Amino acid sequence: xxxxxxxxxxxxxxxxxxxxxxxxxxxxxxxxxxxxxxxxxxxxxxxxxxxxxxxxxxxxxxxxxxxxxxxxxxxxxxxxxxxxxxxxxxxxxxxxxxxxxxxxxxxxxxxxxxxxxxxxxxxxxxxxxxxxxxxxxxxxxxxxxxxxxxxxxxxxxxxxxxxxxxxxxxxxxxxxxxxxxxxxxxxxxxxxxxxxxxxxxxxxxxxxxxxxxxxxxxxxxxxxxxxxxxxxxxxxxxxxxxxxxxxxxxxxxxxxxxxxxxxxx
Length: 265
Description:
Blueprint: E1 15-23, H1 28-46, E2 55-63, E3 75-76, H2 77-85, H3 87-103, E4 113-114, H4 118-150, H5 157-167, H6 173-181, H7 186-198, E5 206-209, E6 213-216, H8 221-231, E7 245-246
Parallel strand pairs: 1-2, 6-7
Antiparallel strand pairs: 1-5, 3-4, 5-6
Helix pairs in contact: 1-4, 1-8, 2-3, 4-5, 5-6
């Protein structure tokens, strides 16, 4: 899906909406969540006569540590999750995840390796500093796809450097490698971890809209559209900013028709 659906550019009466997306590379629901959010954005901008069409979204991924036990040393993903869920438990979980992933157009796999995602978060911070959402969001989606569909390790500096150059964050692989060997944005990312904890975030994805509404889990597009409607200001000024609320109601369809939150934590 094109990144053009994110913002309503060029409208004199557009209302800017900042969306902070607290997430981690190894959370599948974060991948599903951004897919659903972009579907909602496309719908919001599809009818130019709708008040939602003048919402100008600025998306920014923010850091969260989903698994603090991970180190720079890669480990086998399947073995890691088998140790947690057991072989039969993992098989059942994988089937469920693959079914859910297909709904979002994702070819999900548990194969591959994984290591600490701290460098991933540093890269996303650098991407936003470089070109805002126009660079950061497509890069985040590429890295999600790499991990969940193509067995890539989002903690691998070699892989991250390659994607950073392809995305225009750095001009050369050498420049990207120099970045990872430095401590650039290390403090900012760690501050982001702390901020998420202080906000009470215990699972991701966690979306904060204009500091007004916070929702956790891979919400369906319809839920995001309801939030957009709530945020529309008739005067286009954004209005006052009330306290952030948590609407932890992301549904996950099951074979019994029940629903439950869809978040990693």
